[in-house]
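Dear colleagues,

As part of the handover before I leave the project, I'm documenting each prediction I ran so the next person doesn't have to rerun anything. This entry is a single chain, and its sequence is reproduced below.
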Amino acid sequence: MPTTAFLAFDRSNRYPRTALNAMKKLVQFVVTSVFPIVLWVLTALPANAASLPQPDENGNYSGRSCHQSWEVVDPDPNGLNCRSTDTSVAEIYESSLKNLPAISTWDIVGTFATGETFKAGLSPAGFNSIYDQNDNPWLFVDRGNNPDSPSRCLVRANASFVKPIEPVRDCS
């Protein structure tokens, strides 16, 4: 047995008292500090903190969203029109609220078939919607998931035409 004078052993002589005291303090710390925090986090947050965008009463996906994964649901056999113009996306995002673009009059540069998916681009502020002169939201299509899909164009952000799909992106 070591001859260290400051170590005293418990009754069974298995652990020095300093080690037992340290273990007791650790257990006490976990029970009183860590466990309540973990329990609060698990119960305070909803099961799915980030959720898919929901359309408003008009079917528009309006409001601030950073969701990027979308699927075309437009039943039109000709496909969902994707529109573009010579105006750059940066200029569109920077346009004042008084000079919103007439996107519905822009050239159709391609179409998406029902079931096709695409990735929406985000504005410099991190949102996916652009509004037109009628206050309708549009999504900027960064790229389609098919090689022949249109890209760098706009589609209407309405439940009649598109729906958000997984994965959900947390915007915080």
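Residues 69-164 form one domain. Residues 76 and 114 are 8 Å apart (CA to CA).

All the best with the project,
I.
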